[in-house]
Amino acid sequence: VDRRQRQMCIRDSIAHWVQFGFIHGVMNTDNMTVSGETIDYGPCAFLDEYHPSKKFSSIDHQGRYAFGNQAQIGHWNLTRFAETLLPLLDEDSTKAVALAEPALETFSSVYQRELQRRFTAKIGLEGDGNWDLVASLLNNMAEGKADFTLLFRHLSGALESGSDEKVVTLFTESETISAWMKQWRDRHCEIDRPAALTLMRQMNPVFIPRNHRVEEAIAAANAGDYEPFRRLNRVLQHPFNEQSEFTHYEAAPRPEEVVQATFCGT
User: Fold this and answer.
1) Please, which residues bridge with residue 45 across strands?
2) Among candidates 100, 74, 56, which has minimal Cα distance to 13?
């Protein structure tokens, strides 16, 4: 595997898990491998309410590994790794830096391109011209405290049914998201609706390992009951499929169920 393929691995990997609202939790330098993969997820979690500064790790006091910081941290880690390789690139340190910098500089632009491709697909669209719509949606979600997974799941339902009700109810204020929905529908007038629905269902899971469900499984296992873990594991075998017997696993946590912090033992 050459260096560009290794770097592509981590860029794609981060964009892929960000697509699903995942927060690594402790993505420091010793948790990224030479091959560009990440390991030791530790105090990881999935978003409930969306916000780019969201973090769960009990040891991440400054938000270094918050949801919206993950690409920058990946880039920072690769830069630290590149520094250790400088003596191998050239005996002249200036020449070594000149060799390393162009490879590192590709990270941000390629990551952003991959992230935009994935998120525009999540709203059933394709192409560079739709990122403004995604950015506006994410801003509305952060301000309106919308659930990340349910929002994208209900968007596909809204496209299919023509009703915005389930989407709007996820927001504390309905005015801005209602205006956004109109813009979104206008763009969908120009494309094939069945193809858009197929794309959205491929990019947006029905089920994720909700933090309160993971806590539920851990608590039960500590008491000797492994059935909640087994049920959760069965649900997550097919995260993109409707599973009528497990619809309650789709639900966001009630206020008393919200997980505020996760730990390395999770």
Assistant:
1) 23
2) 74
Q: What is the pLDDT of residues 142-194, one digit of tens each?
A: 999 999 999 999 999 999 999 999 999 999 888 889 999 999 999 999 889 99
Active site residue 30: yes
Q: Which residue has the tokens 């994935």?
A: 118
d(CA 237, CA 233): 6
Q: How far is CA 91 from the centre of its chain?
A: 41
CB neighbours of 160 closer than 8 A, spacing ≥ 6? 197
Phi, psi torsion values for 90, nearest 5 degrees: -165, 145
- From the candidates 2, 30, 92, 128, which is the catalytic residue? 30
Decide: 6 and 36 in contact? Cβ < 8 Å.
yes
How much is the pTM? 0.91
**Two tokens at 13?**
């990997």
